[in-house]
Amino acid sequence: MIKIGLLGFGTVGSGVYEIIEKEKNNFRTLLGEEIEISKILVSDLNKKRNVNLPPTLITDNPYEILNAPDIDIIVEAIGGVKHAYKYVTLALENDKHVVTANKAIVAKYMDELLALAEKKGKGFLFEASVGGGIPIIKSLKQNIRINKITQIKGILNGTTNFILSKMTDENLSFNEALELARKLGYAEADPTDDIEGYDVARKLSILSSIAFKTKTNYNNIMCRGINSISKLDISMFKKLSLKVKLIGNAVISDNFFIDKEFSASVEPILVNENSTFASVNDAFNIVSLMGDTVGEQHFYGHGAGKNSTANAVVSDILDLISGEYKFSKLIENTITIPAGVKLFKGKYYLRVAPASKTQIPKIFNLLNKNDIKYEIISINEDLILLTELISADTMEHFIKQLKLSHDNYCYLRIEGKIESKKYAEVLS
Amino acid sequence: MIKIGLLGFGTVGSGVYEIIEKEKNNFRTLLGEEIEISKILVSDLNKKRNVNLPPTLITDNPYEILNAPDIDIIVEAIGGVKHAYKYVTLALENDKHVVTANKAIVAKYMDELLALAEKKGKGFLFEASVGGGIPIIKSLKQNIRINKITQIKGILNGTTNFILSKMTDENLSFNEALELARKLGYAEADPTDDIEGYDVARKLSILSSIAFKTKTNYNNIMCRGINSISKLDISMFKKLSLKVKLIGNAVISDNFFIDKEFSASVEPILVNENSTFASVNDAFNIVSLMGDTVGEQHFYGHGAGKNSTANAVVSDILDLISGEYKFSKLIENTITIPAGVKLFKGKYYLRVAPASKTQIPKIFNLLNKNDIKYEIISINEDLILLTELISADTMEHFIKQLKLSHDNYCYLRIEGKIESKKYAEVLS
């Protein structure tokens, strides 16, 4: 009999409970062993719940679970950092396996918690922390056994993807789309974490740490949000057959084993409207990786939601019990050098709304000074242009020198090619 | 020291050899054990090869490998059915694990070989048999632990995907595109297996057997090839914002646990041009599955090719050695009832080139008799129409009654919605 202690009975926690109850008999056949959730930590013992929990099953004292000698696996589903970190650490120290869905503690303490788990000979698994029902952590672990991963990128946030989809498909402004997302419960009261890309940065730091076998610090990921994109921008993207997506992207340099350089960013990117990334709408997530042997792989699925996230947690639990989970050192402690956004290259879309017409020559001067070649698309209202292929560093440098307020410009790197036909149409 | 016997040194075999040579040190660190390819079966000992193999490493006698007491794992990479089946069976009987990339023997003998492997307590793994570098077999095995899979579908053949891409992007006829595929080495001298969908049917039978936990017999998969699609059809698809893809598709009935019914087919399907499936071009493959808990998942990657296929083989080898591979009964021996294509439903695109104008009223009569409602799109050259939502059974029945030669019609089920704007444009 394998006993599980469940910390938290919110969306993910209750989902895990329901799957284990429903599949009890299947799991017994599969594992040759019974699984039981033997205790659940809740914040309010008297709260009315959709699921009827026996009073003996719940507790509001975490230590009743964390110190219970007969509990084998702790599922952490309370979220947040402070308490979750304390409980997970104690669980590992008390020789329990830990499964978590908490991206915040994994992004922050991954190396430390993996080292502690290694020391104790226990598992620390976190499939559910990135991409909901997409088995990306396990796939990455599997791939790095054979492949050097050179790039990992993904659409990893449902809120911003919903907003961008609505702006594109229904011609809503950013604020209108955000309001709609709020109304439908897809955006939180304070949506900063989603809108500014911080949520994606946490997920990207987890993925790239595994992909590159070195902790990618969250603070070294450049974040740019989606709120500078206007209706005018969206209409231009359509004319160019492009679609905007908030993408987390991490790459290593060609000489990574020597110079240890990597670039990582979360920013809105323009992709071809018939690309796979363009087809990822609303609450779906996608992760793409590039391995030197296997080539390009994509993994796509529900990025969040009770069932798919709980599915990932239970999958980790089954791996622990069946023995399919095998320890391997994920973080090899080699030092990496954050190279800003230097390693990213592309053509850029740039729109500037100059405060006055007199500013326009200054902008052109600045482009020339930075050796940025461009073609003007429109100069009627705002100034809109496409640059030639440049490094992201060059673009960021130029933008800083522009010294304009954030509301007055929008710039996006373009992935893939613009069809020359589209280009000609827009320029004519 | 783990010793591997390699049967075959063609594309896949040499790829496996190269990865293991290149990653030897990494694998030693990862597994705490040395891996060695100790013998390779070749058909011609004196053949000149790109890789320099020591003469002691190669043999033309399979039994020198299959009966070697010190060999732990056999990699079967000779292809074909007769010999491969014999060797794999003997390897398992001689208490060796088997890893194969051979879809033909897996599709045909999966249940038998899995049962033999179970009896001997050995692994029979075949990740490389479907979808090249896409880890779809492992992902399926992982998903069925928790999920009831209700549908599995995929683009699984590079040759036909290349041909359809060229027909769409470069306005080539089917024959021109096939000729180009031949020239570039993407199509074999006799391309029947690819063109008619038999290759995909083999892969689909493997996937759906695992997904539905019951052997899906290859013979119960309805196959329709892509050679009836004309330039006129392609231009119509573009007007409707649709794209044609050869898709293998298997579904179970809503009451599968009672009626045991499933439908499986390989046929060209029309998908929305901005869907994920439409974005899969040339040599890439995609597999989508629908699980009752995890929801929809897609897996995308290189469908064939030396490195990605060899990567899948080596991944299986590592799972065997590390112990990550755990036996679980895949085929549960419950009986399924092949329900033809009854469970598929959709609107259909239909083009008929009547031998004479007098045939047209007969066609309309037949549509009415079969209770198929439709809208006519064009009647200038060929008759082109779109039906309302009907079952695939109804459509197949109607087509049989048409009694026309294959060159004279083309019909395709439409997945997803046609935008009403596009519809109106085409009808006007």
Number of continuous helical runs of chain A: 16
Main beta sheet of chain A? 12 strands, mixed
Mean pLDDT of chain A: 94
Radius of gyration of chain A: 24 Å
Q: What is the molecular shape of chain A? A: elongated
The class by helix and strand makeup of chain A works out as alpha/beta
Protein architecture, described:
Two copies of one chain form a homodimer. With 428 residues, the first copy, chain A, is of the alpha/beta class. The first copy, chain A, is 38% helix and 24% strand. In chain A, strands 7, 8, 9, 10, 11, 12, 13, 14, 15, 16, 17 and 18 form a twelve-stranded mixed beta sheet that branches. The longest helix of chain A is centred in the first third of the chain and has 18 residues, at 103-120. The model of chain A has no long low-confidence stretch (mean pLDDT 94). Chains A and B meet through α2, α6, β11, β12 and α13 of A and α2, α6, β11, β12 and α13 of B. β12 of chain A pairs antiparallel with β12 of chain B.
Layout: helices, strands, pairs:
The structure is a homodimer of 428-residue chains.
Chain A: E1 2-7, H1 11-22, H2 24-31, E2 35-41, E3 58-59, H3 62-66, E4 73-76, H4 82-93, E5 97-100, H5 103-120, E6 124-125, H6 136-143, E7 149-155, H7 158-169, H8 174-183, H9 192-195, H10 198-211, E8 222-223, H11 231-239, E9 242-252, H12 256-259, E10 261-272, E11 284-291, E12 295-302, H13 306-322, E13 337-338, E14 345-352, H14 359-369, E15 374-378, E16 383-387, E17 390-391, H15 392-402, E18 409-414, H16 420-427
Parallel strand pairs in A: 1-2, 1-4, 2-3, 4-5, 5-6, 8-10, 10-13, 10-18
Antiparallel strand pairs in A: 7-9, 7-11, 9-10, 11-12, 14-16, 14-17, 14-18, 15-16
Helix pairs in contact in A: 1-13, 4-5, 5-10, 7-8
